[in-house]
User: Fold this.
Amino acid sequence: MAAWVRAAHGATALPVALRKLGEVFDAPVVRLCRLRHADPARPQYVVSHDATANLSEAGAPASCAAAVLGPYLGTAREGSIWPADTQEFHDLPRLQTALRARRLAATVVVPICQGARVSDYLEMHFAHPLSGPETDEIEALAAILSEAWKDRAPGILLTTVERDTRRGPAAARPDTADPLAMANPYRLSRAEYRVCLLLRQGLTRDGLQGALAISRSTLNTHLQNIYAKTGVPSQADLVHLLMRDAAGHDLRGRAAHVA
Assistant:
């Protein structure tokens, strides 16, 4: 648990923390997934520890969160646990086959941070059916895992995914293009683009309101739309994404490319 708390603050690598969680709970596969509610079948970011990769040549199984939580995907209580047996995925044969190929018999999904459009889930996969005491242990610690993650350092998941993508296939490649790139990869409106541009320049919410001459509710609407398009859960993560590529970028003339 200490490794997870340190990882949330950037003091320990997330894959290391996931491996240690796997050791604590006897789970050979532990994954941290960020899902867009509008497209839960395609995880936006995935960081994982997988001790079963040598058992199958097939790719790692997709996120199980949508299959396990169903209609409660975006509303399940943070820190709650959602267990499922592999056989319950009979209506998702590809997922079931991928889990069985790795000899995984049970899954537990823990919603650790629920957002309006994007949520983070911790998924643990087990090689054996879970006993009552094992489920109780996970339930007792799930709230701590969630609270630690909600207090995480801004951009920690994005930074980890980018680093691991450069090193190898330990994480899914993210869609992390510069929101202010000339190609307008997230299809920002002109108003949304201006908000991002001013955020990159360091303006606060009050500064944004003054510079754009808009109300707080209008600004909040722009920010929520930007979060949905870029897949970030908060203003802090959006600023991290904007500042990541800020050095050396020439912003002149980009407004012509904004939808």
